[in-house]
Automatic annotation (TrEMBL), chain A:
GO terms for cellular component: nucleolus; preribosome, large subunit precursor. It comes from the Eukaryota. One of its GO terms (biological process) is maturation of 5.8S rRNA. SUPFAM superfamilies: Class II aaRS ABD-related. This is Probable ribosome production factor 1. Residues 64-80 have a biased composition (Basic and acidic residues). InterPro entries: Brix (IPR007109), IMP4/RPF1 (IPR044281). It holds the Pfam family Brix. Residues 1-80 are annotated as: Disordered. Signal peptide: none annotated. The gene is LOC112686361. One of its GO terms (molecular function) is rRNA primary transcript binding. PROSITE patterns: BRIX (PS50833). It comes from Sipha flava (yellow sugarcane aphid). Residues 107-287 form the Brix domain.
TrEMBL record, chain B:
The lineage of its organism: Eukaryota, Metazoa, Ecdysozoa, Arthropoda, Hexapoda. GO terms for cellular component: nucleolus; preribosome, large subunit precursor. PANTHER family: NOP SEVEN ASSOCIATED PROTEIN 1, WD REPEAT-CONTAINING PROTEIN 74. This is WD repeat-containing protein 74. Signal peptide: none annotated.
Length: 313, 313
């Protein structure tokens, strides 16, 4: 009972936040730089110590080497590795590209655009026809893609490329293997056209084709599909190389001319440069409404992309 | 019984594989390497199963793991399904004819072939009745009698919408309940329930899905007369119930990134599971009550057909 009045007195006032004076900007930067310098110093010392002790070099952690394990990538210490590789070769002997890779036919490619293409896409198609051997480009006018496919099959074409554009920039590429599919839709970005000097170096020779870093089951199919657009027998006289390199699901297209200077190779960029990103791979010919998809990202990107370290190609 | 396997899968590269369900594992046994795409699988008797590829029907013996007999159908187009009834094989062909082929060469066959309309995609046997059902693209459900070869029930083409525009009809699979009601799923994403016993020829109940199509369907065994599971073109499996008024699915089984080729129900660890094969080359087992993915495995080649062990009476 006695302590009651005391209690009333000791009601604490809420503390006012202390006014922290902001440090001047230059000072902050100086501190940060100092820290960084010290850190680098320590790192350098450690590295030297490790080198003197004869320890192995450390491998930096990157997104690629910490990527999530995929069930369709084979490792030699798997449970039934031999059986799976055997199955894969058997699968590739019977898929849609088996005829091409056993050299039974030569590809014939048709390149078309959206309904009324603007200048930039037409230019892009023109450059593609120059790179891809045995290819023709046409305007499809008001004919639908399905009609174009049927007409192309009758004329004996084996692949069809449809270019799409948005606000004058090429932004999509549909690649259809005929007559039995599959169909792939790529998002197209960062298209850089060759300049005048590079265009002069273009020749009619058939280029060599390299597809690298496709590891998963889906990736191998896509690589086979992209490779089947070009001819198998390259003309080495032209010294052209077309590279399609996959890195973190982005496929980079590059076109070079190589040269050997006293056993030292040198590359010269010819262009165009662009990046492809797979959106879907469909079984059979182009049929967006009723077609069966082998792999699809549209509409369910958030369900599929659960982690930054998960890749599909 | 010589069924050592819980299920058998037919592949596009001609392999036939038996699958055994073990604890947390699938066990595979290679049965056949036919090097032709095995697009359909169905039951013949205790020791034999029927497979088919293009124009051939193959009788496969499970005892000595060999093809015991082959039949060739003289029709243009691929075989889409085979049904066996009392020593007669009923074969559906893509161009719309249904061929009656006796197992042994008996001369006095009453019926030889029946025309079931163009673009046939599905032929199924009605449970416990001497009837079969057909359907296809712009070819609504028809139920036929075995003996007479006459149509017993034809579904009306779907009702035009409020602007009197024609609605598509693209049957991809047919199933039957124990009370002889028929379920039909369409390529453009519609599941319909028909009642052949009533006079109503339009669907009794229907559900639609947005942005997907349906490929395969299975009615639940001994469960109820209203539930059905449907596999979609974009990789989800939906569980529909026709009792309520909502057209939304009860449950979705997720996990696949490719189109579901075939689904079935199976008892695994004394719980009901949904087994599915999909175009991304995986076998999956989902728990039916919880909807979780319990098992999945990469099977390298592209699966086309699935058949389960027939239930012992």
């Amino acid at each position: 009972m006695e302590s009651e009045p005391e209690n009333e007195v000791v009601v604490k006032q809420p503390e006012l936040p202390k006014l922290v004076r902001k440090k001047p900007r230059g000072l902050l930067r100086q501190e940060k730089l100092k820290e960084l310098k010290n850190k680098k110093k320590v790192q350098k010392r450690d590295r030297k110590l490790r080198k003197d002790n004869g320890d192995p070099k450390q491998i930096p952690r990157t997104i690629e080497n910490t990527r999530e394990p995929d069930s369709t990538v084979f490792h030699s210490d798997d449970e039934n590795f031999d059986q799976k590789t055997q199955d894969l070769t058997a699968e590739f002997e019977h898929d849609e590209f088996a005829d091409y890779y056993s050299d039974l036919y030569k590809p014939k490619v048709l390149i078309t655009y959206k309904e009324k293409p603007l200048r930039k896409v037409r230019e892009f198609g023109k450059i593609l026809t120059e790179i891809i051997p045995n290819s023709v480009r046409i305007f499809r006018r008001d004919a639908s893609v399905k009609e174009t496919i049927q007409a192309a099959i009758k004329k004996g074409f084996t692949d069809l490329i449809v270019l799409n554009e948005d606000r004058g920039e090429p932004n999509g590429l549909i690649l259809i293997h005929m007559p039995e599919g599959p169909t792939a839709y790529f998002r197209l970005s960062n298209v850089i056209f060759p300049n005048k000097r590079q265009r002069k170096e273009f020749t009619d020779h058939r280029p060599e084709v390299i597809t690298t870093n496709f590891t998963t089951g889906l990736g191998k199919t896509v690589a086979r599909m992209l490779g089947a657009v070009f001819h198998q027998q390259a003309e080495f006289k032209g010294r052209h190389v077309v590279t399609m390199h996959n890195q973190r699901d982005y496929i980079f297209f590059r076109h070079h001319r190589y040269k050997f200077l006293k056993n030292k190779p040198s590359l010269r960029e010819l262009g165009p440069k662009f990046t492809l990103r797979l959106q879907y791979l469909q079984e059979g010919l182009y049929d967006p409404k009723c077609g069966e998809y082998r792999w699809i990202m549209t509409d369910k990107r958030h369900k599929i992309e659960t982690s930054r370290r998960r890749f599909f190609l | 019984m010589t069924w050592d396997y819980d299920a058998i899968i037919g592949f596009s590269n001609g392999m036939l594989r038996g699958v055994e369900l073990q604890k947390k594992k699938f066990k595979y046994t290679n049965l056949l390497d036919a090097s032709v795409a095995l697009s359909t699988l169905s039951n013949f008797d205790d020791n034999n199963i029927i497979t088919s590829s293009k124009r051939k029907i193959l009788l496969f013996n499970l005892n000595n793991k060999k093809i015991s007999k082959t039949y060739v159908i003289q029709e243009s187009g691929n075989i889409i399904g085979v049904v066996k009834k009392d020593n007669i094989l009923i074969v559906g062909v893509e161009n719309g004819t249904v061929v009656f082929r006796p197992v042994k060469n008996i001369r006095n066959v009453v019926l030889e072939k029946v025309n079931a309309g163009s673009n046939l995609t599905c032929i199924k046997q009605v449970l416990a009745l001497s009837k079969f059902a057909t359907g296809g693209n712009e070819n609504p459900l028809k139920i036929w009698d075995f003996e007479t070869g006459k149509i017993e029930f034809t579904a009306k083409s779907p009702k035009p919408d409020m602007l009197q525009l024609k609605q598509p009809c693209n049957v991809s699979d047919i199933g039957f309940f124990n009370n002889n009601k028929a379920v039909v799923c369409h390529r453009h994403g519609v599941v319909e329930l028909f009642d052949p016993l009533s006079s109503q020829r339009r669907p009794v109940n229907s559900s639609t899905a947005q942005n997907t199509g349906f490929v395969c369907l299975r009615t639940l065994p001994d469960y109820s007369d209203h539930d059905v599971i449907v596999g979609s073109t974009k990789g989800s499996i939906y569980h529909y119930d026709f009792r309520g008024k909502t057209t939304l699915p009860v449950k979705t089984f997720r996990g696949s990134t490719g189109s579901i080729k075939s689904i079935s129900c199976i008892n695994y660890l004394s719980q009901m599971h949904v087994m599915s094969i999909s175009l991304d080359c995986h076998v999956r087992l989902h728990n039916f009550t919880t909807g979780d993915l319990t098992l999945q495995d990469y099977i390298v080649a592209k699966p086309l057909s699935l058949i389960m062990k027939p239930e012992e009476n």
